[in-house]
Design a protein that fits this description.
323 residues; Rossmann fold; 8-stranded mixed β-sheet; 5-stranded parallel β-sheet; 2 domains; binds (2R)-2,3-dihydroxypropanoic acid
Length: 323
Amino acid sequence: MTPRARVIVTRRLPEPVERQLAAEFDVRLNATDVPSSPASLAEALREADGVVCTITDTLDAAVLATAPRRARILANFGVGHGHIDLGAARAAGVVVTNTPGVLTDDTADLTMTLLLATARRAGEGERMVRSGTWSGWRPTQLLGTRVTGKSLGIVGYGRIGRAVAARARLGFRMTVMTFDPMLPPAGEASPGVRQCASLEELLAASDFVSLHCPATPDTRHLIGAPQLARLRPHAILVNTARGDVIDEAALVDALGRQQLAAVGLDVYEHEPAVSPGLLATDRVVLLPHVGSATIETRTAMGMCVLANLRAFFAGHAPPDRVA
Ligand code: DGY
């Protein structure tokens, strides 16, 4: 009988996923859920045939240069792979896979949660009730901004951007526009959704802006001081993509200058650290990177990881190969 492939998993995964991994592979799970240091990632690469990693594992060129290395596949639990140096993985002959598709709807739902919570000042209201400082209904209390019928600019029109557009158009009758440099420069990006000529045009024309681009060297600080200055003072910015798409220091500064009205964030430039200036600002809604955090999606992500490992170790092309 051929020995089962040795697989090391860096974080706790939903129980059905861990059970299936243990049924198919010689697996080492992480019962403590403590994030891996570079040294323990290097050890995993030395000891296992495959490593199941997540966004909390920095697999840079130094870690991927581990020698001798036994691992031939990094099966990432997540769609974003900015934490893995794909060039270094390719150079080292390590296959990298991700889990696309299965988290689209839940991430789009969370985007709408943040957009609505920010516009309707739900964070401030929740804090008021919980702290016992709510003294009762007042006609002028916590007046927010209407969402229905407003304009929404979507930066990055991939699967999640499109799912947000559908919710905004159908559910909230919003006028949706997008900017995505991967699409033809003008015209409709999809029926009823106009592709703006530039990011600047989108920023200046939108009541709400939502970010849906991947983390790449090109998108780092895509939203910095000059871009924030294009927003209108009533604009609301939402980010459920990756933290370093926004220059967080510039964002704190822009909020202080009232260059925009409010911000809803699920991701941060230096996760899990959050800029003190954001924590201190009332009209900011902050969530702990939970875009894909439903039982259904996290289990489906695990099943994608399994499908990739299964195919790879059977000598087939893994379905979600990114390097
Ligand atoms: C993703 O899949 O990219 C989620 O943000 C978790 O990493």
